[in-house]
Amino acid sequence: MIHPRKNPLLWFDLLLVGIxxxxxxxxxxxxxxxxxQKYLIGLGVFVIVWFTVTAISRKxxxxxxxSDSVSLYIxxxxxxxxxxxxxxxxxxxxxxxxRFIIFGTIGLTTIFEIITYNIYNLISExxxxxxxxxxxxxxxxxxxxxxxxxxxxxxxxxxxxSSATHLKNDIIEECGEKAYEYISNRVDLLxxxxxxxxxxxxxxxxxxxxNYLRGIVNLRRIxxxxxxxxxxxxxxxxxxxxxxxxGCAETKEMRKERILRKYPPVLNWIYYFLDYVLKRIFPKFxxxxxxxxxxxxxxxxxxxxxxxxxxxxxxxxxxxEEGQVNGKYFFVVNxxxxxxxxxGATYSLIIRLPRIGKDGKIIRVYKMRTMHAYAEYLQDYxxxxxxxxxxxxxxxxxxxxxxxxxIRTLWLDELPMxxxxxxxxxxxxxxxxxxxxxxxxxxxxxxxxxxxxxPGLVPPYYADLPKTIEEIQDSEKRFLDSWDxxxxxxxxxxxxxxxxxxxxKHARSR
Length: 510
Description:
By secondary structure, the protein is an alpha/beta fold. Helices cover 50% and strands 12% of the residues. It folds into 4 domains: 4-126, no CATH class; 155-251 and 303-335, Vaccinia Virus protein VP39 (Rossmann fold, 3-Layer(aba) Sandwich); 254-296, no CATH class; 350-504, no CATH class. It has helices at residues 8-27, 37-57, 70-91, 99-123, 144-155, 157-160, 164-175, 177-184, 203-206, 228-238, 252-262, 267-281, 286-296, 305-314, 379-385, 402-409, 418-422, 436-439, 444-450, 461-464, 469-485, 487-504, and strands at 124-126, 132-134, 194-197, 215-221, 244-249, 317-325, 328-335, 350-356, 362-368, 427-429, 456-458. A hairpin with a 2-residue loop joins strand 6 (317-325) and strand 7 (328-335). The chain starts with 7 loop residues before the first helix and ends in a 6-residue tail after the last helix.
């Protein structure tokens, strides 16, 4: 529980309750009867419940980590207060409550609280003891060049450390002793060409010296970066080929574990559910995506391991090592190429993936998303680390989401490809449109032949059900040979074979 003297917002919150009560009272044709003894007793019970739940739940505590959505937590706590008051209203008939006034007060106070906290957050700063104090005004203006130099020094831990001991202490203070050991065993921290920073701003990377750095270590979670790919691209531009980049994040699984451990029982699952809706569902739909960025500013985002690695690969890095230390996911990558600068990646439910079409031209195939965001960039990584299983798919493919497995089982992921059929980019029956990486697994002879044909919505795979990559190629060769002789008959036979296997043998794209 937070002591009122340690958090001025707790007392100010009661003032907000009083203001909201008076405003709602005015909206409901003001009457002196609401100041009678029976109503004042009910109001007193309401204030006690409000104060107690607010103090116990630590509603206005400093966020941990700092970018946690306090606004969402305020809403959750006030919903609990709403539930308690509702029970008292219908369980304790002796207490006089006006539903309009009490529930209106809760709603209006919630709005005031969110506004007040965000204003307070802007004019205060953490003091290192888990508390916030008002920011001190700086009356000494500095030049733009000095400001830039100061920004780099403030975020560069090496810039603040005059010795190896100071550097070690600074890193331990930032992310813990175990994390320091993990980092120091993988990066030579004494090498001045290895930059150690704790920043979310790519500005502090872009203004580092050209052609100097060998490696960059960033101690801040990438979850709190507004433009993650731009940051990675800045890192890429400052490193030579083979240069090392080390960073950290919080994965979706780690976030869930932290939330359930951090908050009291029941409240933790309510928080996690609402957090999942806001942070995982809202970004997937255009109608709610803008609201998501308004509420979160893109900070403290939920990221899967697949998305983290996919972003790194899209920005020209290759993974060397992964690890979990002190509740953080650490990655070590090397620069292997220039960034792709692909603006096509999206969180949307319906995505457009590049596939090889007729004459080798790239077409954008519509699919329902079954993999985590940016997972499409991990084809090479998955192929090198996993084995192909029956049907030419990858074993233990962590890129596929839980919802994606269900969608694939119901054969819904292929339905958006009907749009490509209507656009005449594919035909009804034909070889599957393949990604470049998967296409490269085929023999050169078969590659040359299959691009002479328009790909199809229903591939021969569903008719023959091959188990290996070689069997898949043989199946496609038989289909193409048959189609060359009798196109209409081949399409008819293969379509109904595929239909039978999908409906009665439950053949699926897995």
